[in-house]
Amino acid sequence: PDPAPERVLKGIAAGPGAAVAPVARMAEPPALPEHEPAVDDPVAEENAALGALDEVAAELDRRAADLDGEAAAVLGALALMARDPDLRRQVGELARDGRPAAWAVHTACGRYQDLLLAAGGYLAERAADLGDIRDRAVAVLLGLPMPGLPDPGHPHVLVARDLAPADTVRLDPAKVKAIVTRLGGPTSHTVILARSLGLPAVVGCPGAEHLVEGATVAVDGDAGTVEVDPEPEVAERIEGRAERRRVLLAESRGPGRTADGVPVALLLNAGEGDPDEAAAHDSEGIGLLRTEFLFLDRAEPPTVAEQTEVYTRLFRAFAGRVVTVRTLDAGSDKPLEFAPTGEEANPALGVRGFRTSRPHPDLLTDQLTAIAAAERAAAAEGPSARVRVMAPMVSTAAEAAEFAELARSAGAAEVGVMVEVPAAALLADRLLRRVDFVSIGTNDLAQYTMAADRTLDGLPELLDPWQPALLHLLAKVGRAGEGLGQPVGVCGEAAADPLLACVLVGLGATSLSMAPPALPAVRYVLARHTQAECRRLAELALAAEDPEHARKVVREAAHPEAVLL
Ligand code: PEP
Ligand code: MG
Hints:
Layout: E1 8-10, E2 12-15, E3 18-25, H1 42-65, H2 69-82, H3 85-96, H4 101-119, H5 121-142, E4 156-160, H6 165-168, E5 176-181, H7 189-197, E6 201-203, E7 216-220, E8 225-228, H8 232-251, E9 265-270, H9 275-280, E10 285-290, H10 304-317, E11 322-326, H11 361-381, E12 386-391, H12 397-410, E13 414-419, H13 422-426, H14 428-432, E14 437-440, H15 442-450, H16 460-463, H17 468-484, E15 488-490, H18 498-506, E16 511-514, H19 519-526, H20 531-543, H21 547-557, H22 560-564
Parallel strand pairs: 3-4, 4-5, 5-6, 9-10, 9-16, 10-11, 11-12, 12-13, 13-14, 14-15, 15-16
Antiparallel strand pairs: 1-8, 2-6, 3-7, 7-8
Helix pairs in contact: 1-2, 1-3, 1-4, 1-5, 2-5, 3-4, 4-5, 10-11, 17-20, 18-19, 18-20, 20-21
This protein binds phosphoenolpyruvate and magnesium ion.
């Protein structure tokens, strides 16, 4: 029998796969009691407040010691923040002024956060970390459970209001079987993380706040559902599906093909990290190299020599495969200290991406010089990659022409632009005449098409890549590519959703680029559909009323083996 409706929560399908496990909740940040008690002994309050900060720092250090790499570094940085002498001085002063310990910590951290937010950029991002320190120290002082990731000591479904980046790097995929969050949209960092760990996830899920610690839930990351206390048959079905998925995906190898053998290159989205590790994934190359990692958090831009060295290693590691280098995509949510763009009321609509080269032309020309030099250096050492360059946030054919001219005169053989702005999608044929290929960034294209900020969590349904309006724009780009016989890639999060990937191919995409763990499922599902079937799925999605309807009709029309997955 069908379960009662209230037992099934519905959210946004954000990481494919399914799992059944007990809920482990992330403790909510502690709230201060409404009434601030009077203080008898300010020195005792000062000691308690500073002691709580010490305890938080020690706990973070302990957790860092169990981890390595980025996760340990993030925790180490948090611990340092808890020991920051300025912060401690402010906490001490407030306590000596008569504020109870928890209030002193709360107020001092709040002031510090305001300072960071006012400084903007990288520092503003650290404000969330300070919130983490504050919540932990206040929890210690109020005797409440420490906020942050739970560790029930067994496999679980992690349920949270939202996940902070500092939490997400610490997730242990051996223990966390699935993620469910109350907030978060389809392109939020939670989703990007879940995909990069290959975890089933449902985000933007109303009712998640009522899931009880320890209750068994069946999470379906493809349908976007969370079923509480599933019937044994349901649990068995989901577990069977998870097992079947493991087996099938382990067998999914080789280049991307439709069922009738039409090649669709399956590529990686890559950034910071070991090139050899990236190259070890079964992919046909890199479809999006986010080069920002070379530029962010620095006082000066990297030199041409430094960039050349990084790109050379990558081109060597991907010998015989394609590497698509995206030029610097700074500005907006990724400001650079050395390339200020001035005050902007709407930074996402401001000087970002390719536009950054207007006030700072050298950043782009130096990067293009380094890419070309690396291509020569790698080829001189032996087999190298097939290098392509593309610019982000191009809006007009004139900008595409300008970039192509710069890239070709630097020595680039294959030049493209990203389609992330509706204007570029609408006139994709004109852009394509200026370049060799385009690659659609669906994350930004969704935010600009729907006028919905991708960094806000409150607008998930508008940012859903299944929005018919977005798909109509993608169709326009696909047709332009087909008409001109030129490649059209997709490198936004949309490409990582297996059924949507088939729709994209039906709309004319010739390559798909995604986080590595998404590759096997996309490859498997694509291989179950002919090109004509992909076209049919695309028509159904284009005709759908809304994202949910689009998902439903495509699921119903898809190959049964693809949906079973
Ligand atoms: C996109 O916008 O879809 C994209 C791939 O670029 P980024 O996510 O780096 O902005
Ligand atoms: Mg983008």
